Amino acid sequence: MTTGATPMILPTDLERRRARLGRWLTRGLGVVVEAFFGLIAVLALTGEDPPRPEAWPMLACLGVCLIAVLLAWRWPEAGGAFLVLGALSLAVARADREAAALERRS
Predict the structure, then answer these.
(1) Which of 38, 41, 60, 105 is the most exposed, fewest CB within 10 Å of its CB?
(2) SS3 content of the chain, % helix, strand, coil (to 5)
(3) Which letter does DSSP use for residue 40 in this model?
(4) What is the pLDDT of residues 86-99, one digit of tens each?
(5) How far is C-alpha 60 from the geometric centre of its chain's CA atoms?
(6) Domain locations in the chain?
C-alpha cells in the first residue's frame, strides 16, 4: 500500500560542493563590496567638510545596506531581503537628492 508520499531526492556530492562554492564566492564578493562602500562611507563621514544635510538620508541607506550584507552571512534570506529594501531606499534617496538639485538650478 502506498501512502502517496514522494520519494526524497538527496543532492549528490558534486551538487553540495557547487552550492558550498557558490555560497563562499558570494560571501567573498560581499566582503569586497562591503570594503568598497564602507570606505566611501568612512571617507564621507571623516572628510574635511562634513556631509551636507541632503546627503544624510543616502548615508543612512548606505549604512542599512552595509549592515544587510553582514546579516546575509548568517541569515541569507533575511539579509538578502533587507539588502534589497536598503538598495531600493538608497535609490529613492538618490532620486530625491537629484530632484532637489534640479530644483535648485531652476
Answers:
(1) 105
(2) 80, 0, 20
(3) H
(4) 889 988 988 887 88
(5) 13
(6) 23-105
- Give CA–CA dist 59/5, Å, rounded: 52
Calculate the CA 29 to chain-centre distance.
11
Hey, what's the cell of 1? Answer: 500500500
Please give the grid coordinates belonging to residue 20: 558550498
pTM, entire model: 0.70
Under 8 Å between Cβ of 63 and 40: no
> Which has the closest alpha carbon to 83: 97, 103, 67?
67
Q: What is the pLDDT of residues 39-59, one digit of tens each?
A: 989 998 898 888 888 888 888
